[in-house]
Prior knowledge:
The chain is mostly helical.
Amino acid sequence: MAWNDVHRASGPPMVGRHTERAAIGRLLDAVRDGLGAVLVLSGEAGIGKTRLLEYAAEQATELHVIRLIPVEAETGLGFSALHRLLRPFLNRADRLPGPQRAALDAALGVVSGPPADRYLVGLATLTLLSDAAAEQPLLLLVDDAHWLDRESAEALAFTARRLHADSLGVVIALRDGPEDNGLFEALSAHRVTGLPETEAKALLSFATRRVDTAVAERIVVGTGGNPLALLELTDALATEQLAGIAPLPDPLPVSRLLEGHFRRLVHAMPPDTTTLLLLLATVPAGDTATVWRAAGRLGLSARAVQPAIAAGILGRDTPPAFRHPLIRSTLYAGARPEELRRAHAALAAACDPVHDADRRAWHRAEATEGLDDAVADALEAVSERARSRGGYSQQALFLSRAAAFTKAPTTRAERLLDAAQAHLMSGDPAAAQTALDLAAYDIRGPVLGARELRIRATVQMFRIAVADVPAMLMDAVTRLGPQDPGLSWELLCEALHAVLVAHDCTHGTSPAEVAAAAVAARQHTADASVDGRALLMEALARRVADGYESGAPALRTALNGLRRGGAIGDANSPFAVMLAMACDDLWEVQAGRDLADRLASADRGTGALYALGMTLLVQAHYDLLDGRFREAEVRYAEFDDIAADTGFPGGGDINRLHLFALTGRQEELRSAVRRTAEMRSLGHGVLHLLAQQALTLFELGQGRYRQALKHARTVFEQDSPACGNLILTPLVEACVRTGDRAGASEALTRLEERAPLAATPWALGSLALGRALTADGDDAEKLYQESLDLLDQSPLALERARARLLFGEWLRRGKRRSDARTQLRAAYESFDAFGALPYAERARLELLATGATARRRSDETRFDLTPRERQVASMAAAGLTNAEIATRLFVTASTVEFHLSRVFRKLGITSRKRIPHAIGEQGPATEG
């Protein structure tokens, strides 16, 4: 329902609430200044949240005010609230970028097509509202947000989190308790509590009946200052109780008294009025056409509404609306089952069977008792409509209800498994677990059993608990047997992914066992030679099952196929993680960068935020290898934004281990390492190894070689594809510096075995460096130079700087000071430019020992940019327009413009053409 002209509801004036009013005032000021702002008001029923929304509307006289009031009965109808919210703005939909328009059209059922990505729907919502706000600042008021359907809530939460410079304010009111879906937790929130005693008494003075002073004090204390309770109890309590003659209930049961009071008000109405009120409570506010069609089927007259208006249950607005949301929820919750079934039956008959099939099926189900396959089939049919719109929580609800009406146990189990899968797609693993537990009673046969285990394993992955997942999926393969080789291969790919992440922390199976099963199963799949993703998973399996000699050629073949355009996974698969493991195991940085960039582009184009988040971490890894520390920090910051948007619990500093190590941020590094220990208990064994690798680099930078050796040895012994090869050269260095000749020989032997098999410039350069560290005389110098020449062929600026440092140190020890200065100065300048402070200091001290000077350089102005500003500036430098940048970053063009204005100010430039030079990046290619 849109409010273009909003009037305060009749009743007493607002008393107190100075803190809340000030917060609303700040929000409105921000919107008037062209910014975006959000405020979440939470509190118990009747505490005054609705009145505060009315206050916000009263103060927003020059703003376009929109109010959205969800309905409890439609909590399961995906995108229903969003459709009502966006209806006034859909004439602007043709201005949306193509992917956003397609996603929104699919979500709202405008066109048929692939399921809508929920994050693109959220971005389309933000873009539409921002576009409208550009013409007139906009204030969105959402009452009873706990009754929003999940898809609409996600879109609104996404919009609220991404507000920045959009002339758009959002105030959300929701009730404390289990109804809160947690999607708004990360937003600026204020908990509304009861009025202080003085203000509560002042409000009570406006009551319609006289209240004794002592009784008033007891009511204030007993209600906790709840404004609605204060006023409504003066009507609910007997005259003798208000006068102090008869005792008050002790303790004062506020919720029960309020609900009982509202229930008595409704029951005092004529029967036709009560039925009409129940119809109004069951449909969205403003949907009077459906209400009156249903009322007509029940023989109700339009005059039936008048007693409710006269009693103050409904306001005098047109169309009629409940005076307070609590009346609506009390009425619906308190109706007798037969009353509800009668109302839902009338509403089902009033719904159009084609254009409103979802609501029709839902109302029909609510009107039905017992098992009914026809009702179940209708619910399953509309669940497919919900899935096609990306309404996965709605699909899950319809399927769960369909299962409740289904007679055949096997069909019931299938529908519950489908519901569990839909819950996972909507990001609700707890609900998926419930559906799985219900399905377990009716599971029959190996196929359903395997499917159940697969979904249970996915639930564990959602909870980032990996340890049991490989064994669960292996059990699913065993149950399935030879019936479906394709499905068996998919299950084994998922098991392999999980076991590579878990490494040595699996329960019930081992990496070698999973990998061997995957290699065997691959021979029976139909696409054994064409699917790039499958080829890579097979190659990783061979690497783990049969060793590096067998795995490396397979990895090379798979990567070549992917680079030629092979399939790189779907939007729901974080394929970048496996890709990075394969590339690092081959010392293949260029392929890794190219394919990660391709994945990121695809993920952005489809709005696949979860997959994009994983890809960003891989891109950050390659940025670090090339000394682009600031670019890596930009990607980490964007990943954290995405983690907040998707509810993924893996964000934060745990992903910055190597950045902390290389920049010498010891306290942050130690804290992140402690978190990896916690993650290890959930089965994330490879994360522990990555932490040990980071600690190795940190200690080497500090010149603490014995500590570095301890950490590097752990990684070497575990030999994970993720970092087992990358640790070899640092391990050789630590061994040489500590005099561990046997350890150096062991590490070098593995290098000599594997680097020629990988045959990449990075592999061969690492081998040359490892040999140089253990060689003497002219041989060492040739090997150092060979290493530099090879590393220079790939984007490995950090590795080249480390090689120069080691070469310079060797030259200095040989008393070749002039030659040492050349290498050490180059290393120092590189490390200093990267921000690798420990290594820069190590190079500086070595340079001083040659008799040279090394002046510390001050940071340049461009490094004052925030990660988001740096990201926007970099994209602008590459030639992207504001609209293109906005689409890639899931923000609005006005937000991009805001960030660019700050970039110009900080860099002291006035032209977009000067950005590349100012931030030290190459501009877009020019024609001609």
